[in-house]
Amino acid sequence: MTAVHSFPGRSGGEVMRRLLAPLAHYYSDAATVEIRMNRPHQVITERRGIGKQAHEDARLNRAAIERIARSLGNASGTAFDGEEHVKLSTVLPGGHRFECLVGASVQSGLSLAIRCKHPFSPTWEQWGATPFVRDYLTAAVARDANLIVSGATNTGKTTLLNMLLATLPDDRRVVAVEDTPELQIGRFWDGNGLLAAREANTATGMVGWRELYDHLMRITPDHILFGEISTQNAFAALAALNSGVTGFMCTIHAESPEQVIHRKFTQNVAWAGAVMPDIPEYLTDLVDVVVQIKRTPTGFRHITDIWEVREGRYVFKDGREVSGC
Fold first, then answer.
1. Are residues 85 and 221 in the same domain?
2. What is the value of pTM for the model shown?
3. Is the pLDDT score of 254 beyond 90?
4. Chain segment 22-56, per-residue pLDDT in tens
5. Using CA atoms, how far apart are residues 296 and 223, in angstroms rounded to an integer?
6. Strand partners, 186
7. d(CA 70, CA 283)
């Protein structure tokens, strides 16, 4: 599971730093958005303003990556041995998300991605947002609209959601429900963050999404924030929406606002094995706004679409304000 943990003490921390150094050489750059390895010795970096670049690195063979993953697994209490346990999802020092799979399920023997979480506070202009977009979204948050931020992998969905959260008064009762803490809720002095176990039957002292949902419904939130919607939490998110809450916000992987409503939630719920009829109709009745983000070839992210779900209309489409809205 993705764990929130402290890394070893001073001597152990130094060992971990030395072990991570070949990878840190790439991900420590504040402009780096993600690094990937699709085979031993080759590192792909993606940086803002530069885009993708490939680097050959003799230090990073499969054995080196497996040593790193075993040490990270030990630090986070997650099994990884490169033989029976071949997949690891965890968090590096600095909050960077580490995802690794080795062995027969990968043709090259190795698949690695590190999603970087360097502090980055883009301006509305850097989002490609006109004054209309800025004013529309801040007004939607202020009126407690139920809002979903949509985009492909690593398009800045959480960054935008945090930017919208920053417009709320700090006395709001904001409760975030995530499996990895990424939403910036520390300034909400009556807020709280709940963390779900990503794997069942783990001896971590953490509870699952069902238990967190039950708790959430009993602690009187003003705003319910889900992180990224997945097969594990989609049903809980739908249940939260059905509770009559306003000010619900989440992110989801989708290529368009219509896909969010008509396909992605249904797909995630179905993959989780839950049965719930008429999910698109249900979402159309409960979600106010979907905001779409897309990534440029140079690594920057732009808001491209805003869809008013209940009204069935775009107010911003393909980077342009829709006339008459």
1. no
2. 0.75
3. yes
4. 999 999 998 898 999 999 999 999 988 888 899 99
5. 31
6. none
7. 42
Q: Return the beta strands (E) in the chain as ranges.
A: 32-39, 42-47, 51-56, 87-91, 97-102, 110-115, 147-151, 174-178, 192-195, 223-228, 249-253, 289-295, 301-308, 313-317, 320-321
How are strands ordered across the β-sheet holding 320-321?
192-195, 174-178, 223-228, 249-253, 147-151, 289-295, 301-308, 313-317, 320-321
Cross-sheet strand order for the sheet of 51-56: 51-56, 42-47, 32-39, 110-115, 97-102, 87-91
β-strand pairing of 192-195 with 174-178: parallel
Task: Note down the domain range covering 240.
Answer: 124-321
Q: What is the DSSP letter of 236?
A: H
Residues 250 and 146 grouped into a single domain: yes
In the chain, what is the greatest distance between 2 CA atoms, to the nearest angstrom? Answer: 64
Asked if 253 and 152 count as a contact pair (C-beta separation under 8 A), the reply is: yes
User: What length does the chain have?
Assistant: 325
In a domain, 19, yes or no: yes
Q: What does the radius of gyration of the chain's CA atoms come to, in whole angstroms?
A: 20
- Tell me which residue has tokens 């990224």: 228
Closest CA to 32 of 55, 54, 49, 17: 49
- Encoded amino acid at 172, one letter: R
110 and 131 part of one domain? no
Please check whether residue 102 is in contact with residue 112, taking contact to mean a CB–CB distance below 8 angstroms: no
CA distance 161 to 191: 16
Note whether 198 and 73 are same-domain residues: no
The CATH number of whichever domain residue 31 belongs to comes to: 3.30.450.90
Interval 99-111 mean pLDDT: 95
